Amino acid sequence: MFPVLSRTTSLTRAAVAAVAVAALLSTAACSSSAPASEPTNSSRNEELSIAVQAQPASLDPAQLAEGQQSYIWASIFDTLLMVDKDNKIRPNAAESWKYSDDLRTLTLKLRSDLKFSSGDAVTSKDVAATLERTRTTPGQQQPKLAKVSSISAPDASTVVIQLSAPEPSLLNYLAQATGVIGDADTLASDTTKLRPTGSGPYVLSDKTVDGTEYVMERRDDYWNASAYPFKTVKVKVIQDRTAQYNALQAGEVKAALIQAPQRKQAEGAGFAVKEVQATAALVLVLADRKGELVPALANVKVREAINMAFDRAQVVKALLNGLGKPTVQVFDPNSGAYDPGLEDAYSFDPAKARKLLAEAGYADGFSMTMPSTVISQSFEPVITQALSDIGVKVTWEPVPPQNTASSIASKKYPAVLWFYGLNSAGRQVGDMYAPEAFLNPFKWQDPEFDKLLQSIATEPDDTARDALYKKVNEYTVKQALNAPIAYVGTLWATAPGIDFLPTGVVLPTVRDFGVSGK
């Protein structure tokens, strides 16, 4: 294994910090695992307080970000659809939906009992206005509606979305931030950024201190209020993870993500600790597969060699404190795209990696520059040593925290170490491999791969689509499009009386928590 891992203690501390960043940055979000209607017990007046690391930049529906920020916006806004604990799309504000035979027209029917926090009825006009504004306003959600050509509201309860081409992930988008419902009359108001007119189960209280603590009170006139056992929800912004744990111990919050070394102490103090094994993937993204900056990366043997450079099991043990799982795949292990048979594709074998490099014409190795970001810094010694052992020299170029994401889009770097928040297979393809994908800045394409994506786009059956995504996964692994290293898990600690419910990846919402016996 890498000599640099002899410095396990210092690297582990740094890696824990990086994992915290991963939890914060993840746009991960596959399922909400709480019951669809009834709370976990009959209590209706409980208070839930959650610690998060960052406040939402905006509550404007066109500017929403997923990850921990959704504890707030998903409480204030309803979404058209939802994803259940089995990663299946379910009705929500829209009680039904139907695609045309060519999969280019989606018709949604809204429930008749939807209301805004102002008391006004939610209508299809509000849904259409929100979607149209998101579609035409730059932001994280705008690209997800790129294939939408028009949105109409033929009557008060019907929304019709026309597509320029089939979009297999559209229903998933409408179950998350893209599908929130804002008030058409107030969307453009300056107050919407901080105090929007919501359609969801909670409303922001006057006790809210923006950027510090968000206090939300349950709306008992909400159509699905029985699914929310907490009368009051407080989301406290505490950037430091140690400070979060201290707040948990002091009773200032009832739920928080904790670090792996704190697990035994938390359990000994009476907190319930639940592990979610895979919420993100630690991936060396081999972005320059066309070889524009580093010609070697266009050769599949080189990419295979890079995959053989990492002792994944040791990385999980030494740097992640065992909170994770070695993998050569980027797809959620709970999804239909995951294939356990692929995990043996690349064993740790530096000698074979060097042989592959020689066969590819790089017996003397090659060099490449990668961005040094808040995500990568704690893992850089391991990555540098592992690649050096097979003949690949890495130079790290510092990137300011605010430029972490833009460092990928800049096309300055042939590869980047990234935490990718796990999601549905369709969204992962859209984020990683599609021509317009965020993690495909060089717009790599391949006819065989494109044919697979086209077959998915025109396949209406979920089971058949899962089988096609599995073929996509197999292609990405065998062609070594990236070098995944590990799935990264998280630990939730909750105070007596509070349960953390999900067992898989989630879009963070208050429905992830229930009331337990004290």
Keyword list:
4-stranded mixed sheet; 22% strand; alpha+beta; 19 strands; 26% helix; 518 residues
How would you portray this structure in words?
- The protein is α+β, with helices and mostly antiparallel strands and 518 residues long.
- It has 14 helices and 19 strands.
- It has helices at residues 8-25, 70-76, 124-136, 170-174, 241-249, 263-268, 300-307, 312-319, 350-359, 380-390, 406-409, 425-432, 447-457, 462-478, and strands at 46-52, 81-83, 89-91, 94-99, 105-110, 148-155, 158-163, 202-204, 213-218, 230-237, 255-258, 272-285, 324-326, 366-372, 392-398, 416-421, 483-494, 498-500, 513-515.
- Strands 11, 12, 13, 16 and 17 form a 5-stranded antiparallel sheet that branches. A 4-stranded mixed sheet has the order 1-10-9-8, with helices on both faces.
- Strand 14, helix 10 (380-390) and strand 15 form a beta-alpha-beta unit.
- The longest helix has 18 residues, at 8-25.
